[in-house]
């Protein structure tokens, strides 16, 4: 089955010699591409781009042309993008016209800024929304996703669809992170042989490699925080309901959240400021909107607000195994930096039943997600205006029919089959949901309140399940690179609605350390 022209173009096969030439061209020693006005786009922040717009050093058309050029050059290696929007240049020209006419919305921070959205986020345009699967190719969504509506209203340009772990990593136990049938295998731009992590691999790959400055990802459990950590990117996993999930291919309405993936904390905050808020198509946004501070989130971008912040450290298991133990020296240095900036670190804490929380089977998370996925996906598919599949059962049948195309024979569809075998929210699922609620209440929530913590500090995405099962927010910031130049991050997690405090902490840490560097594209 052929994809559309854009997808075919950006995922075309290159010879080994072509790949080597590309890697040479994009290595740190290679020259940066500069516009005719002397402004360097690569690594530019949203504020940099807006200033260049204001000073007539750059237009949105030039910016889109630059990113399309980078996608054409790098995507055959990185596979971070599935489709480019054929109307992106038209949207750029429209933004330039609005800026020249001094239209009111041209004052928005994201006006004229291209954005890549994960291929689970619906767009009512010429782009497909497929979760990386051929089963949904040609489907037509009834409307833009809620977050896309907010982006368009702010004047942002939808540049295209970013790749992902197919079906948000909820089809197969064997498929590698970053792989989808439509998008191929995503590559980590720092070390190509290392996982980009998933499921929001494409947004992280693309932002890291300067295929775009701004991308949107989704998370059910780790899918924003993990790719951000592995690709040396900043990401915000918002409180569940703070950003609308309407029009997004779901896994679990109880845990799903949509968040920014960018190169800096300030850029992620620009995006969160735009996409947070009420959407009548997602009832969870009504209650979560109470957390949005008057005046928005940009006011918390202050490098000197670490002073007095109470940060909790749970050594076991986060710093005795995994990422934390591998990079113990770096994290000890970070702890010292946080102290020097005025933060109060409360060390050697324990989260009750942490071993159970981190085991999706013991906690009941797997039981709950399997049932929720079938119910929510069937509802999503039935709402599509046009679709080759109308239920999870249809998707399974499609994948069986086109098993070579979808790599079913190799990777299987164990999660799909287990989900299809569920029958709504029965006694087992109710027991699992109650257990998850109790684990959050007696574990993370109790710890945060007992010690009056502003945030829990953990390595990379290691605490993702702790935040996921309770709908809690987290921010990942680059924390370093190992001896092979593989990135790792640090995550600050908090209670529901604590984004303002987490932004202050993450921004303070970022400004004090300035760790992130452009990718090295090592083989």
UniProtKB/TrEMBL annotation:
The keyword Membrane does not apply. Keywords: Signal. The keyword Signal applies. InterPro entries: Amidase_dom, AS_sf. Residues 1-31 form the signal peptide. Residues 63-465 form the Amidase domain. This is Amidase domain-containing protein. The lineage of its organism: Eukaryota, Viridiplantae, Streptophyta, Embryophyta, Tracheophyta.
């Amino acid at each position: 089955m052929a994809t559309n022209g854009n997808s075919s173009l950006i995922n075309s096969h290159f010879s080994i010699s072509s790949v080597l030439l590309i890697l040479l061209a994009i290595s740190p020693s290679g020259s940066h591409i500069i516009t005719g006005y002397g402004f360097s786009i690569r690594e530019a922040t949203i504020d940099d781009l807006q200033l260049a717009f204001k000073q007539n050093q750059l237009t949105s058309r030039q910016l889109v042309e630059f990113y399309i050029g980078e996608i054409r050059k790098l995507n055959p290696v990185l596979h971070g993008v599935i489709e480019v929007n054929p109307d992106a240049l038209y949207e750029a020209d429209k933004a330039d016209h609005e800026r020249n006419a001094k239209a009111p919305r041209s004052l928005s921070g994201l006006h004229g800024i291209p954005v890549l959205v994960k291929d689970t986020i619906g767009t009512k345009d010429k782009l497909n929304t497929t979760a990386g699967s051929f089963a949904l190719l040609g489907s037509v969504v009834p409307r833009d996703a809620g977050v896309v509506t907010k982006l368009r209203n702010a004047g942002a340009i939808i540049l295209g669809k970013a790749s992902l772990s197919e079906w948000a990593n909820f089809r197969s136990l064997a498929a590698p992170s970053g792989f989808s049938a439509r998008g191929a295998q995503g590559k980590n731009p720092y070390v190509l042989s290392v996982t980009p992590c998933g499921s929001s691999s494409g947004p992280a790959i693309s932002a890291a490699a300067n295929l775009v400055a701004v991308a949107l990802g989704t998370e059910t459990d780790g899918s924003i925080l993990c790719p951000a950590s592995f690709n040396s990117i900043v990401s915000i996993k918002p409180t569940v309901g703070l950003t609308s999930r309407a029009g997004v291919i779901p896994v679990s309405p109880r845990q799903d959240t949509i968040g920014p993936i960018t190169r800096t904390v300030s850029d992620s905050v620009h995006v969160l400021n735009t996409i947070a808020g009420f959407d009548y198509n997602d009832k969870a946004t009504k209650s979560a909107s109470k957390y949005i501070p008057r005046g928005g989130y940009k006011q918390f971008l202050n490098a000197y607000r670490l002073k007095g912040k109470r940060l909790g450290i749970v050594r076991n298991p986060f710093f005795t195994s995994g990422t934390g133990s591998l990079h113990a020296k770096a994290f000890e240095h970070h702890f010292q930096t946080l102290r020097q900036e005025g933060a109060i670190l409360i060390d050697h804490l324990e989260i009750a039943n942490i071993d159970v929380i981190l085991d999706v089977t013991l906690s009941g998370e797997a039981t709950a997600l399997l049932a929720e996925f079938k119910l929510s996906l069937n509802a999503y598919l039935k709402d599509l205006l046009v679709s080759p599949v109308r239920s999870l059962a249809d998707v399974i049948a499609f994948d069986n029919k086109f098993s070579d195309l979808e790599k079913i024979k190799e990777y299987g569809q164990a999660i799909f089959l287990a989900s299809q075998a569920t029958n709504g929210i029965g006694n087992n699922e109710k027991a699992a949901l109650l257990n998850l609620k109790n684990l959050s209440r007696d574990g993370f929530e109790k710890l945060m309140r007992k010690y009056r913590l502003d945030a829990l500090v953990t390595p990379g995405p290691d605490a993702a399940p702790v935040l996921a099962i309770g709908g809690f927010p987290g921010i990942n910031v680059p924390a370093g690179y190992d001896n092979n130049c593989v990135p790792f991050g640090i995550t600050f997690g908090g209670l529901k609605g604590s984004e303002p405090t987490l932004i202050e902490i993450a921004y303070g840490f970022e400004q004090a350390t300035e760790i992130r560097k452009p990718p090295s594209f090592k083989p």
